[in-house]
Specification:
The chain is of the alpha+beta class. The protein has ten helices and 15 strands.
Length: 350
């Protein structure tokens, strides 16, 4: 093989190197949050180029490179949404950007009223908004603010007010030692079920990573410096937040349902780490891309998957996982829903 062909093959394999590096904790950082969303597109482009240059490159090598790049592209495409829906419904929805949706609560109530009732987790909710859902949809809810420094919004967890659902307790747990944000932890007993621990999380966001020492200039260099610092802080805290949550789960007796807005795509390290222990509802029982953050520039039809449902051993996803059609009319996130069952018989606590 000539040096030219070798160099071309190396360039076309860049998406493969990136995918390998994304799964390594020591290399996780600001670059991961950029590479994660663009990697499937980069893999598809590299695959198409490899096929187009197959005679120049070598047909067998070109097709091998194309096949590996396509594997990177379709990695998060699920084909497991088959079979009946059984168990308890589970839903997560970030109802953010209320200012951009003047009738957000009416829209949310209308959307939720058509959904099967069960474990419902919300992010970016105020206490007043939680009470609206509680009253209009006959729910029992827990709510807390993300922090005590002027925050109105936070996570909420709701279950039906009827049918034997019991919210046994609820706690505010700090995300990390260097951050003020908290997540909502609760013990819930569903009908004919055991105690299930529920953690409703909202991992560090880009907009919440603004640093006090950010450059204030409007020039390109200042903006790039600010973006770099925010992404570095975002990646560092997300890594610490997921590590703390999984360490805490290690001491729990009852199974854990982990759900919420993770502000990251499924190919970055934190999700690789979570999938070592938890089951991803989309990958097990989803269909298609599962994009939960519509992109306006693409007509709101597609977008990255940043909202997740994870279940620990002892639980299993027992129904189709899907994003709720039309929920993007109420928020800049789509609601994500699935069905949860016990993986094996467990005795209910007395």
């Amino acid at each position: 093989m000539t040096m030219g062909r070798l160099a071309l093959a190396f360039v076309l394999c860049v998406p493969l190197w990136l995918r390998l590096f994304l799964g390594l904790e020591k290399l996780d950082g600001a670059w991961s949050l950029i590479a994660g969303p663009i990697l499937p597109v980069a893999g598809l482009i590299a695959a198409l180029i490899a096929v187009g240059l197959r005679r120049r490159l070598d047909p067998r090598l070109a097709l091998s490179i194309a096949a590996f790049n396509l594997a990177v592209t379709v990695e998060d495409i699920a084909v497991g949404g088959m079979g009946p829906d059984e168990g308890w419904p589970v839903l997560t929805w970030n109802l953010a950007d209320a200012a951009g949706y003047p009738s957000q609560m009416d829209c949310a109530v209308s959307t939720l009223s058509k959904q099967p009732r069960g474990f419902w987790a919300f992010q970016e909710m105020s206490r007043e908004e939680t009470k609206v859902l509680e009253a209009r949809l006959r729910l029992q809810c827990l709510h807390l603010e993300y922090h005590d420094r002027g925050s109105r919004n936070g996570p909420a967890l709701c279950v039906p007010a009827e049918d034997g659902w019991v919210v046994q307790s609820g706690y505010a747990h700090k995300m990390t030692g260097d951050a003020v944000n908290r997540y909502l932890f609760a013990e819930v007993i569903p009908p004919q079920g055991p105690v299930i621990n529920v953690a409703n999380v909202h991992l560090q966001s880009y907009w919440g990573s603004r640093a006090s020492d950010e450059p204030q200039g409007k020039g390109l260099f200042s903006q790039l410096t600010s973006a770099r610092k925010r992404l570095q802080k975002m990646a560092r805290r997300q890594r610490a937040q997921v590590t703390r949550i999984t360490q805490r789960y290690g001491g729990m007796k009852d199974p854990l349902l982990l759900l919420g807005d993770f502000n990251s795509t499924a190919n970055v390290w934190i999700h690789h780490h979570l999938r070592q222990t938890f089951q991803d509802a989309h990958r097990q029982r989803g269909w298609g891309l599962g994009g939960s953050r519509p992109v306006a520039a693409l007509g709101q039809r597609v977008g990255p998957r940043v909202d997740y449902l994870y279940a620990s051993p002892g639980l299993r996803w027992s129904g189709e996982t899907q994003t709720i059609k039309g929920s993007e009319a109420c928020s800049d996130h789509r609601a994500v829903r699935s069905w949860l069952s016990l993986d094996q018989p467990r005795s209910r606590r007395p």
